[in-house]
Write a structure and sequence with these properties.
Layout: H1 2-27, H2 44-51, E1 57-60, H3 64-80, E2 86-90, H4 93-99, E3 107-111, H5 117-127, E4 131-135, H6 141-149, E5 154-159, H7 163-171, H8 173-180, E6 185-188, H9 191-199, E7 207-209, H10 214-219, H11 227-235, E8 243-249, H12 253-264, E9 272-277, H13 283-292, E10 297-299, E11 313-315, H14 322-325, E12 331-334, H15 347-351, E13 356-358, H16 366-374, E14 379-380, H17 384-396, H18 398-414, H19 418-432, H20 449-459
Length: 460
């Protein structure tokens, strides 16, 4: 009855919401890109690529953050077997752009099918997965039901519940049970999330703690080693120049930092500013804002040669590079925490070993923020005035910067490895069901790594 009710009500709800989402896509100039994929309709080329795959693992990653988690899993699995077939679906254009670098003959990237019975059924028939992996909290009923109908296990990895989602699951526990009971394995980010998942009605016997894969996402920055140094040289910024970097900023935060920059420049003449908005399509309006403040600005996408005159501000308008840009900062701020609500991921900033500053709005990362603050690895400020005082003190005192930066790096390194554990569990499943027959291991990987990784997750 729940399944019937959902498949009657959801199409109407989707029809009501469609104009708003189509308007947003049109506003960003992306309304027509591969729209058929969202209905489970694929071009002949894509259909042929999907048909060539054998027992692929299907990973659903809604946006940029989840796509980076999927990247970790894909890299870890490919380290075990280079020709393992994988399909990754994403909801957003930016998610697809980030994932594009992963594509090859054994990894196909698609837009996710809308959660309608017919649409999801089409996608399953084309993809024919042996395992469906949902990232974090992307639980769509028809995905789960269609997988169950076909005998395909469904895993929820790096599982977490926002306070809003937790409240909804608790309130509608009886309605959610027919979906949640079909989840074969749930790998949570920490012990607190395990308790919350159980309290929200997720099957307790299926939940394990393996740590947060977001730390492993930040470690992907090693593939861009040297990017920060190359950018500094191309901009004409000196090694001794102090740099304030504001990453993943939300509307309103850029103005705060331009005002901060104008004031602190009087005390620190060598000061530079990096602005990296969360949505890079806002870059045009931010560039105009910089001109309003009478500061020179260079857009990262347009840096094709070394500049003869060093700009005051670097505007990062490219996706997938912020995790490496944090190495530029003398002090790093992570946005949507002063303006907006929820905050953005500050783990990538912690990897750089520099002081990390955020506002109080870190609801989406409340438990991580509490951990970092407890370890002296994160500075939270209440408003723009407190931000000004904090950044000024950090710029002036190298010893204080070193203390906060070292603490951030220490917490980061302590929590690495969840991606390897999760990939080990996937590999154990594939091997146990005869879905893989050959292991192409890196030379440094021991024969016992897979079993050890899986056991580590189960011990959690």
């Amino acid at each position: 009855m729940i399944r019937l009710f959902y498949n009657i009500v959801f199409p109407f709800a989707l029809a009501l919401a469609a104009p708003y989402y189509l308007w947003r896509m049109w506003r960003r100039g992306r309304a027509s890109r591969a729209f058929g994929e969202r209905l489970g309709i694929y071009s002949d080329e894509l259909a042929a690529r999907l048909a060539a795959l054998k027992n692929p693992v299907w990973i659903h990653a809604v946006s940029v953050g989840e796509m980076m988690l999927a990247s970790v899993l894909a890299r870890e699995l490919r380290a075990r077997r280079g020709d393992l077939d994988i399909v990754i679906t994403t909801t957003t254009v930016t998610g697809r752009e980030v994932g594009r670098r992963l594509e090859d003959e054994h990894l196909v990237l698609l837009y996710n099918p809308v959660d309608l019975w017919l649409t999801v059924s089409r996608a399953f028939k084309r993809i024919c997965p042996c395992l469906l992996i949902l990232m974090e909290q992307e639980i769509w009923p028809n995905y789960v039901w269609q997988a169950a109908d076909r005998g395909v296990p469904v895993w929820l990895l790096n599982a977490r519940l926002s306070d809003r989602s937790y409240g909804r699951f608790v309130k509608f526990k009886k309605m959610a049970r027919p979906v949640l009971s079909r989840l074969s394995l749930i790998v949570a980010q920490n012990e607190e999330e395990v308790s919350r998942l159980v309290g929200a009605g997720f099957p307790a016997h299926a939940i394990f703690n393996a740590g947060s894969m977001k730390f492993d996402v930040a470690q992907l920055a090693v593939t861009d080693s040297g990017l920060a140094e190359r950018l500094r040289a191309r901009l004409g910024w000196r090694d001794a120049d102090r740099v304030v970097l504001a990453g993943s900023t939300f509307a309103g935060e850029e103005r705060i930092f331009l005002e901060l920059f104008a004031e602190l420049k009087k005390t620190f003449p060598d000061l530079r500013l990096v602005l990296a908005p969360r949505h890079f399509e806002r870059s045009g309006e931010i560039a105009e804002l910089c001109r309003e403040f009478n500061v020179s600005v260079a857009r990262q996408s347009e840096l094709t040669a070394t500049l003869t005159v060093a700009p005051d501000v670097l505007l990062s308008d490219m996706t997938g590079v912020l995790r490496s840009l944090y190495e530029l900062g003398t002090v790093n701020f992570v946005g949507k925490s002063l303006c907006g609500k929820g905050g953005q991921n500050f783990i990538e900033a912690a990897r750089a070993g520099k002081p990390v500053v955020v506002g109080l709005n870190t609801q989406n990362f409340a438990r991580l923020a509490a951990l970092f603050v407890r370890e002296g690895a994160l500075i939270q400020v209440r408003d723009a005035a407190e931000l000004r005082v904090t950044v000024s003190e950090l710029l002036a005192d190298a010893a204080v910067r070193e203390r906060y930066g070292a603490a951030a790096r220490r917490v980061f390194e302590k929590n690495l490895g969840a991606g390897r554990v999760s990939a080990g569990m996937i590999w154990q499943f594939l091997s146990g069901h005869g879905l893989v027959t050959q292991v192409n291991r890196p030379a440094e990987q021991s024969e016992g790594d897979d079993d050890e990784a899986a056991a580590e997750g189960q011990r959690g």
